[in-house]
Amino acid sequence: MSITIKNEEQIQAMREGGKILAEVLEKTCEKAVPGVSTLELDHFAENFIRENGGIPGFKNYKGFPNTLCTCINEKIVHGIPQKDEILQEGDLFTVDCGVIYKGMNTDAARTVAIGEISEEKQKLLDTAKETLAVAINTAKPDTHLNEIGKAIQKIVENAGYHVIFDLTGHGIGKNLHEDPVILNYWDGNPGPLLKPGMTLAIEPIFAIGTSQMKTLRDDWTLVTDDNSCSIQIENTILITQNGNEVLTKI
Questions:
Q1: What own/partner pairs with CB < 8 Å and gap ≥ 24 does 43-52 have?
Q2: What are the tens digits of pLDDT across the range 216-249?
Q3: What domains are defined for the chain?
Q4: Predicted confidence (pLDDT) per residue in 166-191, tens digit
Q5: Where do runs of H (alpha helix) occur along 80-237?
Q6: 126 backbone dihedrals φ, ψ, rounded to 5°
């Protein structure tokens, strides 16, 4: 495993790109209301990123066709925006996006309620926000990497939910996916020590009823095996001398 330490120029590019990403996610979520298609949101996001000097990080990555990954309810990750996929009152909607700016990648995801959602979905959403906050707070210099996964798994399972074991966070920088793999659970291996200059995309991913998933016919979209609601939430962070800095926030 080779975890790259970013220099100041690279870090500043990720700060600037992360700000564009945070803004496009915020504005996309504001537009995510009943009656809107996920493809409309995708077109908006691509235009916003390009108008602000960025490049959509997901588009054409390993053949992925769009700027956003859009997932509703039982869809876990990698959902492809569609003109006939219309947001409905009561949906739990996740939007995942990447930005390349000055050659450096950032990656983040937000989940929002579409109108009024059930208590069950609200609890899932609240748990996800808590989980990401605790996971980020855990990521500090001279802490072992897999303490992040241990913290995530504890909160998720204490809430009665199921970690999707086959999906992970990752290092990020010149490439969208770099070392290290960031597990969302504890596998007994502490992993490497975190050092200032490392940049990580931390993304808890879990579901109400199962840890198992299946792939739809588009060969991209992953859904829960039991069709129970799932959630993903993510930020890109920088490990600093004293803790960390969230790069994908406004």
A1: 45/95, 45/97, 48/20, 48/23, 48/24, 49/20, 49/21, 49/24, 49/99, 52/20, 52/23, 52/24
A2: 999 999 999 999 999 999 999 999 999 999 999 9
A3: 8-243 (3.90.230.10)
A4: 999 999 999 999 999 999 999 999 99
A5: 119-138, 147-158
A6: -65, -40
